[in-house]
Design a protein that fits this description.
Elements lengths: L6 H7 L20 H10 L7 H12 L12 H4 L7 H5 L19 H9 L4 E4 L5 H7 L8 E5 L2 H11 L8 E4 L8 H6 L3 E7 L7 H14 E14 L3 E3 L4 E2 L2 E2 L3 E3 L2 H15 L3 E9 L18 E10 L2
Parallel strand pairs: 1-2, 1-4, 2-3, 4-5
Antiparallel strand pairs: 5-11, 6-9, 7-8, 10-11
Helix pairs in contact: 10-11
């Protein structure tokens, strides 16, 4: 009987230091989905034979000097990054980037959202990373002048121009901000002005109480006919990962992973605390494999983890 290789031994064979965490992936592999390949070819006008090399070069150029995947935060922290400092957030591009398999076109209400933006509605991409979700909507023929992107890491947005080669046609504005900062520039500039918010892999970064606070901050941004849409890691049944738990080489803050019942219960709390009524248009759980995520990118999370998507609309 042949003994299974340890993570360290397997890492050494790949030329990666033994302490490299499970989520570090040096190759793009199947993460470059047909959707993103289509965006890069037809929106960004990158020749089909050059797409993979182009993406790899942009990701590689983002790596910080001396950065190591050993010190990278978990991938779920990377995608929104509002709960880690900027230097830690930037190291997330050391691993194969999850922005390559955006779920935005699969969101309930996506087609209606695109139509609203075509008609002039403002759209905020919260925790935008490279701004891939705004490019997906722009590729549908929606104008970009009413688009807003926000992240704690300003360089993400700049590298998005490198990735999508659209500095001249992407007219959206970027606001570097921490949503939960009492003096947030996002709140100062956009309070009551946003028609639709997209939040990808964002709210699951927080505990129950912090999610309530974060959603209440978003509620302040939206118009009386506003929508909040997004997707994140959920669980069945819902559960909270306590603060201080070590995942790979990183110690994490508390995170709450919703199922449908807990998500609806949280929104009832948000309604009670804000006095604003909302309609939950949809909240869906699905296996993470349906998100076209390679198994190796989510199996370390645990068998209870699932994909959760949602769409809530404000009752004016």
């Amino acid at each position: 009987m042949v003994a299974a290789k340890t993570n360290g031994a397997a890492s050494e064979e790949r030329g990666i230091e033994p302490s490299t965490p499970a989520w570090y992936k040096p190759e793009l592999g199947s993460r470059l989905t047909p959707l993103m390949r289509n965006i890069l070819q037809n929106y960004s006008d990158i020749p089909p034979e050059s797409v993979e090399q182009h993406v790899a070069e942009v990701v590689s150029s983002f790596r910080t000097a001396g950065a190591s995947p050993t010190h990278s935060p978990p991938p779920e922290i990377c995608t929104a990054a509002l709960v880690v400092d900027e230097s830690a957030a930037r190291t997330c591009m050391e691993r194969a980037p999850t922005f390559l398999y955006s779920q935005t076109p699969l969101l309930p209400g996506y087609k209606a959202m695109v139509e609203r933006v075509r008609e002039g509605a403002s759209l905020l991409d919260l925790g935008c990373c490279f701004g891939q979700d705004l490019r997906i909507v722009a590729a549908e023929g929606a104008p970009t002048q009413n688009m807003v992107a926000s992240d704690v890491v300003g360089e993400y947005w700049e590298r998005g121009f490198d990735l999508f080669r659209d500095r001249e046609k992407m007219r959206g504005r970027f606001i570097q901000a921490d949503l939960l900062d009492p003096g947030s520039e996002l709140a100062r500039q956009m309070r009551g002005k946003i028609d639709i918010v997209i939040a990808a892999h964002f709210f699951h970064l927080f505990s129950w109480d912090m999610q309530v606070q974060a959603f209440k901050k978003v509620v302040e941004l939206v118009t009386p006919t506003g929508w909040i849409m997004g997707y994140q890691i959920g669980a069945s049944p819902a559960n909270e990962m306590p603060a201080g738990r070590t995942v790979g080489s990183s110690s994490t803050n508390a995170k709450f992973y919703h199922d449908e019942e807990s998500f609806r219960r949280m929104w009832r709390q948000i309604e009670d605390e804000t006095g604003i009524k909302w309609t939950i248009e949809a909240v869906d759980l699905c296996p993470l494999a349906e998100w076209r995520m390679p198994k190796e990118d989510f199996q370390w999370m645990g068998e209870d983890k699932m994909g959760l998507s949602f769409h809530v609309s404000r009752q004016s």
